[in-house]
Amino acid sequence: MGQNASCFKGGELDVLEFCHSHRLSVVSLASNASSASNCSEDDINNRSCGFLGNQELKRFQWVPPKGWDHHARLLRVSARNSLIWDGSTPVPVAPAKSLSWLLPCSDKMALRIAKLQEKLRSSGWKIVTSPVHIIQSLGNKAQFPVYAAKIGMLSFLPCHFSSPEMAAYPCVLKPAKGEYGKNTYICHSKEEVYQVSPEFSTAKWVLQELVPGNVEFSVSLLVLHGSIVDVIGMKYVYDKSIYIWPKVTELHRHLCDVPVQHTAVMARFLAEYDGIVNFNYKQRPDGRICIFEVNTRIGADLACDAPRERARELFQLLDKLRG
């Protein structure tokens, strides 16, 4: 569950105290910018937060549209997944200047927001993002093992193979860029690898150890200037121990505590990170976590699966600390 009273930085635990309280016309911007984060959408519609209730405030806009708008609305902090923008220029104008957050929910958009952050801020958006090279190092599945080796954390990833001839089978083949298990395969021989990728290249494909187990964790973190300020863990249990999601039956899911030992490992990857990030991993028999990927964006666990009241707290905290 969340650890809102704690701040992880570089693997060490420091205690901080945080207080939880969260086309528009804005009344008294100076006084309402901070108080709006404490208001539900019903409050906004009733004009109790200094906003005009006859216009829709899109305070947290997740881009691009992925069919998550219903889940966003259930947060009751005026979150939306409805803005049609493909990352190109000109950039969209914020519905409420200096009040509306633009947050990525795809890897491509995370990179585009990082590259276009100054233009987006000039267009009225509030942005939380990281240096482009950090987004690429974490979000690109081919570059991620290189970055992990650079910071001395490669042992917390699956084994990666430089060629089909060097792989231990069965193994997993997946694109360097991609989401939600698309074009990901379990291969049992080098011949199967070459059937999928006749001209295999580690720049375009990742060939990695298959880690068995029917329990998987998806952890979303709010990270501000390299410090973890909130953690939401989701545990997923499946009907198979060897699978490629989503080609598996989910038995159940639930909110779970994230051990300090796990969070400390994740913190080592986030020293230069700023924003919302998602880690997907399993736990090895010896207790070590095995990180499959890092998503530099809002993941489906936070957007759709986590209890709405708990997910709401993360967005409120972002607005409280950086609004």
TrEMBL record:
- What PROSITE patterns does the database record attribute to this sequence? ATP_GRASP
* Gene3D superfamilies noted in UniProt: ATP-grasp fold, B domain
UniProt xrefs under InterPro entries: ATP-grasp
According to the entry, every stretch annotated as the ATP-grasp domain falls at 136-323
Q: Do the record's keywords include ATP-binding?
A: yes
Which UniProt keywords are present, listed alphabetically?
A: ATP-binding, Nucleotide-binding
Q: What is this protein called?
A: Pumilio-like 3
Report the source organism.
Answer: Durusdinium trenchii
